[in-house]
Amino acid sequence: MGIFKLNLLLKLQRQRQRRRRQIQAHNGSVLIHPRDKINAPACQNNTHSWSGQAKCSDPTLPEDISCHIHSLMSMRDAARVACVSRAFARSWRCLPNLDFSEESLGINRSTCKKDEKLGDLTSKIDWILKNHSGIGIKKLIIQVGSVYSRDSCHLAHLDSWLQCAVKPGIEELIVNLSSMNAKYNFPCELLSSGTGDSLRYIYLASCNFHPTVRIGCLKSLTRLQLCMVNITENELRCLLSISLGLERLELRHCSTLKCLKVPCLQRLSYLDVMTCTGLQVIESKAPNLSSIRFEGDLYVQLSLGEPLQIKQLYRLCNDAAFYARTELPSSMPNLERLIIHSDTEMVNTPMVPSKFYHLKYLSIALGGQTYDYLSLVSFFDASPFLETFILNALRERTERATIFGDPSGLRMMPEHRHDKLKCVKIINFSSVKTLVELTCHIVESATALECLTLDTTSGSPRCSVNRLGKCFLMRRETLMEAHRALKAVQTYIELKVPSKVELNVLEPCSRCHALDL
């Protein structure tokens, strides 16, 4: 909630008070001349404020309501209203959500030098914590990565800030030191003596984290995120063993990990492991794990205690399509949602008899100079209940054979029918012959098809919704290919699309790319 919503609430409060006075005046209990209203002062000086500024005589709000409103504001808005309102000046001392970052504290990155930013950030955080009672803090965000350099980390400030703010009752702790190259040792002792009992969410980035059994039980922790954190296998296993209520575990760029062993956590349903390059083994005994997101080579050993429970999988690695088609129907037969990303697919997807009997959503992003997109029909045959298919045909550095450069006819597979497929979207649609063949096959064989979207761009947000007000740059070669793709749609696809199917063809923005054409 920002200043606008606060002003609206205060306005409504004033209107209620005005109506109350009018009713009282009508009943004879109060008589106020309109001229007296006009001459009445709008603001009065208030010397008890810690800011020493003049305070407006704002409407009286119950303390719990003013505290709740204050907690919904950003740090900057919360500070502003505390300077002009007695009620919010009081609630400032027990503000539950503290967000310490350049953006939230109003530090201008472009105009300030590094030392100036450092001093400004440090002084503001010190001042806020000095004027805070330390009671009732529910959420703490410390994000100082772009301010602190590797040579001047001022780690003592971090220790003091955490000691002031991390107290029993805290629920969310976010410490992001993205440019400090893991020089900071997170003080695990802060989580002991009952302080960690209330924590529901921990996010640590770019630091050393060495928890032990001495920190007690993190009984309320439901989500743990570690990014670029130095932690050993035993330390992580220890941490997980005392987080019995954990529901989501997310590890990013934790390169020191070689083995991830997840104990029998009954509530764990989501596991996300991305770019942990040293990882060789993932073992899970969590019986209710249903969603996995994993980026890693195929040689990484996956051992999942209850693979039948897994309903969603996102797999990122080379040859992911071949792996998914040949391995997953037997290892994860109950998949309902499958997302795979393969920058380089070395072999075509084979036709094998195994099935995905529960798969309804399939998204594939893949590249490969010689890959045959028509071979993806194997996934359609294996998924009799598939409803949504999204393909991102990743651009190659060198040109592939186009439909216009290959005079041979289009291949057809009339014996294959897909009567559940309703929605298809192809991103980076081009004139590559095998991609045109796949699209024609879908149009002719998906009897329940309702919507077909062919996007000749990369699928990035356009200028109409982009914060910059301009589409992302497209190289001239890419623009030329987009126009060949449009011609391929008009020549080979458009006439085959049934009238009941909604065909959407997205071309490059003429406003942003007019000069390039």
TrEMBL record:
InterPro entries: At1g61320/At1g61330-like (IPR053772), F-box-like_dom_sf (IPR036047), LRR_At1g61320_AtMIF1 (IPR055357), LRR_dom_sf (IPR032675). Gene3D superfamilies: Ribonuclease Inhibitor (3.80.10.10). It holds the Pfam family LRR_At1g61320_AtMIF1. Residues 128-510 form the At1g61320/AtMIF1 LRR domain. This is At1g61320/AtMIF1 LRR domain-containing protein. It comes from Oryza nivara.
